[in-house]
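Hi V.,

You were right to ask for the full record rather than a summary. Here it is.
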Amino acid sequence: MRSPLILPPVSPGLEVFVVQAGLHLGAAQEWTFVRRDGSQFPGQLALTAIRDAAGATVGFLGFIQDVSERRLAQTRLEERTTELARANALLHTEVLARQAVKAGLEAMFKALPDLIFRINTEGKVLDYKAERTSALYLPPSEFLGRRMQDLLPAIAGRQFEEAIRQTVQSG
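Predicted structure:
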């Protein structure tokens, strides 16, 4: 376990930096600095003691870097991260709701004893349910993925296509 560092009492002002640099605590730290025009800015001060051959401090070397843009970028990043987390939570909720609806529809679809075809807005057969495959006009490999209006006799196909168009238009 490291023992705590005991620092001598330090007055506010430049002495804070001098003591820190003199104790080899040269890590860069952020401070609020004042420009000549009186405006303030956040800056990172890196200060180190300059020593002679005997190890005595003969001066200090310091660099101040304005970190305003870095802080602004960090704030924007945190805000965007929060936005994305909220959007992700909403999306997750929506996905769960859609999965529940889908599961309900699939359960209903499987519970019906009739011959049922599930088609998209173009009339393409996506799925089917038949208690007896003998009730099917064609084997599934010949109708799945094809348009129903192309499978039916011409008159029935046109009527089917018109019914789909009307259903899509009415919402």
